[in-house]
Amino acid sequence: MNNFKNRYSNLKIVDIPDNKTDNFGKKLAITIGIKAAKNNHLLFTDADCHPLSEYWINEMSKGFGDEKQIVIGVGIYEKEKGFLNKIIRFDTVQIAINSLGYAKAKLAYMGVGRNLAYHQDVYYLNDGFKSPLPCRVWR
C-alpha cells in the first residue's frame, strides 16, 4: 500500500492494528473506511476483483446523476477452464439478470458488493450495517 501511496498522493491508508484477540471482519474495515472517507460518494469492490475497463470508476460515478444515492453493477466471473467455473458464471449471470431487472423496475433488492457504490448518507441513514433490509433510501 505504501508503494501505491507514493504514486497516488490522494490515497489514504487507514490501519487497523492487530490486537491478536479480535477477529475483525469486512464490515468493520468498510465502516472505518466510510468514516475516514473525504468524499460522499463511495465505490466498493473486492480485493480479488479487477475492473474490465480503465473507465470503471468513471462509469460507476455516472450513476449518481439525478440525485441517485445507490449505484449497482454486476460482478461477472472470468471464464476459466472447468465445469465448476461454468456453473459459477451461469449463477452469476442469473443473479445479475434478476437484481438488475428488479432494480430497473424500481424494486431493487440487492447489490453485489464487488461492484457497488452509494452515497455516504445511505450508510448513516441505515445505522451502518445494523439496520435490516430494506434500505431506507432508494431514489
Structural write-up:
This protein has helices at residues 2-7, 26-36, 56-62, 83-104, 120-125; strands at 41-44, 70-72, 116-119. It is globular, with a radius of gyration of 17 Å. It folds into two domains: 1-38, no CATH class; 40-139, no CATH class. It contains five helices and three strands, in the order ααβαβαβα. Strands 1-3-2 form a three-stranded antiparallel beta sheet. 7% of the residues are buried. With 139 residues, the chain is mainly alpha-helical.
Overview in brief:
With 139 residues, this protein is mainly alpha-helical. Helix content is 37%, strand content 8%.
- Spatial strand sequence of the major β-sheet: 1-3-2
Low-confidence sequence ranges: none
Evaluate the radius of gyration. Answer: 17 Å
Number of domains: 2
What's the number of extended β-strand segments?
A: 3
Helicity level: 25-40%
Morphology call: globular
Number of helices: 5
Strand content: 5-15%
* H/E topology pattern: HHEHEHEH
